[in-house]
Design brief:
This protein has 59 residues and is mostly helical. It has one domain. It starts with 7 loop residues before the first helix and ends in a 5-residue tail after the last helix.
Length: 59
């Protein structure tokens, strides 16, 4: 049994860092839009809302 001695605290911290980095990467993909993309998305949403409101029938 001449296995390599490891520090469990260090291993746990490395695993936690890897998980955090993975989660951060997923969030960058999910929420990461630059300013121009946000502006275009807001314009498209506003345009769609106005178009939809224009087609509503009043009761």
């Amino acid at each position: 049994m001449s296995g390599e001695i490891i520090n469990l605290r260090r291993v746990k911290k490395n695993i936690a860092r890897e998980d955090a980095a993975k989660h951060a990467g997923e969030n960058r993909i999910k929420f990461g839009l630059n300013k121009s993309e946000k502006k275009v998305a807001a314009f498209q949403k506003e345009h769609a809302t106005k178009k939809l409101d224009g087609h509503k029938l009043e009761k």
